[in-house]
Amino acid sequence: RALGVRLKHAANRAAIKGKRVVLVDDSIVRGTTSRKIVQMVREAGAKEVHFRSASPPIKHPDFYGIDMPVIAELMAAQMTLEEMRKSLGVDTLGFLSVEGLYAAMGEQRRNAENPQFTDHAFTGDYPTPLLDYDALRSGQVAELPLLAEKAAE
């Protein structure tokens, strides 16, 4: 990942040195890529680095075909906003709210009983029952085979 970030992104020292920089990304999942980009901008001489996510914090895994980490790997599920800010090495950190996401999509508000969009990664409100996952979260089982395999990868 670190090499991939270095190959895909480059900080323009002449444009950044001594400046206050705002980085905007679509989301923060593990924080690995964000951390490397922040480090690169700091090394280029940024006076301040502020980070904004164009999505709400991702606190819940996806079980519907998106390859998303287990909850233990989701930064926002494991840390407070302040802990995330410190871990990323930024001066400030902000996320779009769930309400802001719905407003951006032209909705007055989120319908909690029947959400208009797939927002379970942000809210934990899954559209179908997740009996195995619920058993894991409630402590009825110690681990699920598929989740254990995913965590071991």
Brief account:
The chain is 41% helix and 10% strand.
List keywords for this structure.
single chain; 3-stranded parallel β-sheet; 153 residues; alpha/beta
Tell me the overall shape: globular
Please give the number of β-strands.
3
Q: Report the average pLDDT across residues.
A: 87
- The percent of residues in helical segments reads 40-55%
Q: How far is the N terminus from the C terminus?
A: 15 Å
Radius of gyration: 18 Å
SSE string: HHEHEHHEHHHH
Spans of at least 5 consecutive residues with low confidence: none
Can you characterise this structure?
By secondary structure, the chain is an alpha/beta fold. 41% of the residues lie in helices and 10% in strands. The protein has helices spanning 2-8, 13-16, 32-43, 75-78, 81-88, 98-104, 120-123, 131-138, 145-152; strands at 20-25, 48-53, 92-95. The protein has a 3-stranded parallel β-sheet with strand order 1-2-3, with helices on one face. Strand 1, helix 3 and strand 2 form a beta-alpha-beta unit. The model has no long low-confidence stretch (mean pLDDT 87).
